[in-house]
Amino acid sequence: MVIKNIAGEMNPYANQKVKTKRQADTQQRTQESVKTSGEAADRVVLSSEARLRGAALQTANEAPDVRREKVDRLKQQVKDGTYQPDLKKAAANLIRDDLDLLV
Question: pTM of this prediction?
Answer without folding.
Answer: 0.32
